[in-house]
Design a protein that fits this description.
The chain is of the alpha/beta class. The protein folds into two domains: about 40 residues; about 240 residues, Rossmann fold (3-Layer(aba) Sandwich). The chain contains eleven helices and eight strands. The relative contact order is 0.12.
Amino acid sequence: MSAKKVTASRVIVFGLLIVTGLYVVCVVGLAIGQRRLLYYPCKVSIKEEQPSAAKRGFRPWENGKGELIGWFRPSQSGPARRTILLLHGNGGCASIWFHYAEGFQSAEPVDFYILEYPGYGGRSGGPTQSTILRAADDAVASLSRKCRFYIVGESLGTGPTCYLAGKYAANVKGVFLVAPYNNLAAAAAAHLPLFPVKWMLKDRYPSDQWLKDYHGPLAVLLGGKDEVIPSELGRTLFDGYDGPKKSWFQPEASHGDLHDGAPGIAKDVLAFWKDHESPNASEK
């Protein structure tokens, strides 16, 4: 073998080693820092937001231990016909989702609760799948009337919403998912196709598995230009659900558009839920 060929072979091998090394470094970095890439909590506490929240009709929501766990807005137009719990997305405080309460309450008298996650809004702890699911369980136990209720989830929050729907299926009378995913590994793989995210991911949020134990009405809103959670993942979740279901597809909507516009179809979602109520389901 000539000296030139030997040199070229060494260059190729050396280049492959560098690329492989960089890839391994990236994999390790992603594995270590994945939760920083997934959760973007705000640090403004519920107490700090209370004055501005009160102007919009919201009160701090406490659990049985007296801990602040989110926000509550009572019905603005007479006795509530139903209780709705919202689980929000991964970025910002629960107050960013106040417009959902305003949208649903403009359509019907409802009591509206928004859960704040651990590590968000001044709450102690840090956000992980296990801490958020425990907080979701605590939220159900802390509802003012522990019977029938409805759940709304957006983006990351659609996973915990499916968890609650499956676990409390007898009491959950309707679900509305905005920009959902079938499982978080699929959502991560859509952004990082070159990495083994299925094996790296700590918080998997298997929405499709959790939803198997729920059989009530499922409403889903998808956006054709959702750059965060591809609509195909939500469609896969929707298509795999065997219970009563209805979807709304907005072909030009981005992830932010869905966040802003979802309350605009609250009246339609409520009508769909009502169509599948049992004779006594309107009782809270």
